Amino acid sequence: MKRIGLFLFHFTLQEALSCLFPVCIFLLLGLSQIVAIPGLPRYDLLLIACLAVQVVMIKTGLETKDELKVITLFHLIGLMLEIFKVHMGSWSYPEAAYSKVFGVPLYSGFMYASVASYICQAWRRLDLAVVRWPRNWATIPLGAMIYLNFFTHHFVADIRWYLTAAIFLLFWRTRVGFTVNRERFSMPLVLSFFLIGFFIWVAENIATLLGAWQYPNQRDSWQLVHVSKISSWFLLVIVSFIIVAQLKQIKTATQRHVPDYRSNA
């Protein structure tokens, strides 16, 4: 029993540290509801605050420069998706702001970046290792199709369930290993995708309650985000994981081919 308690303590601690950036965003959303700066719209205040958090995390070593590059990439990917979804009426940002681009405040990209931040931090802190990762010729097109489906389902059939079936077929043998208190554990990778997607859905409910964005059915009063959104986050987590995994493969391959000139010194 003591061993289980110790495991849960260390696992919770590492998960909490990995979620530091997302937690900061939620705190900022809550504070921005009660703290106002005259002449500075709430969305602009959130943008400045998110940038400040990133600076602090880099300066204190809580985040590496490589992780910052990944987060910046996800900010751009998320911003493109946000602009399209807002244009299609999927949700909205009703408050005014100077930092809005096509109706989307720039701080919104950080909410996607926070997912990447969690994956990168957890990968480093829990020493993640993926076993039986599928070939790139299968994972990269699948990730691209998932991302494109977020756009194309507004015009043609939504194929998310076909993509979900493809995910189970492709990753059914893949497991992710992680270290907690110097002990190794593993779990099916698809299960980890679902768990992350579920907790993001929980976080999404908190975020909409705090006015981060607004779905059409929440215009008159706040309502629970539909459970079908879990499937959307499940798919988005997979895209995020595939991108991070590919970037790590590229970095590893690059390091292997860079000669160490220090040995000649």
Helix content bin: 55-70%
| Side-by-side strand order of the widest sheet | 3-4-5
Strand elements, count: 5
Overall pLDDT metric: 87
Discrete helix count: 9
Oligomer: single chain
Report the radius of gyration as a whole number of Å: 20 Å
Strand content: 5-15%
Structural class: mainly alpha
Broad shape: globular
Q: What this model shows, in words?
A:
The chain has 265 residues and is mainly α. The chain has 9 helices and 5 strands; from the N terminus they run ααααββαβααββαα. A 3-stranded antiparallel sheet has the order 3-4-5. Strands 1-2 form a two-stranded antiparallel sheet. A hairpin with a 2-residue loop joins strand 1 and strand 2. Helix 1 (2-18) crosses helix 5 (109-125), helix 5 (109-125) packs across helix 9 and helix 6 (136-152) runs antiparallel to helix 7. The longest helix is centred in the C-terminal third of the chain and has 29 residues, at 229-257. The radius of gyration is 20 Å and the shape is globular.
Features:
mainly alpha, three-stranded antiparallel β-sheet, disordered C terminus
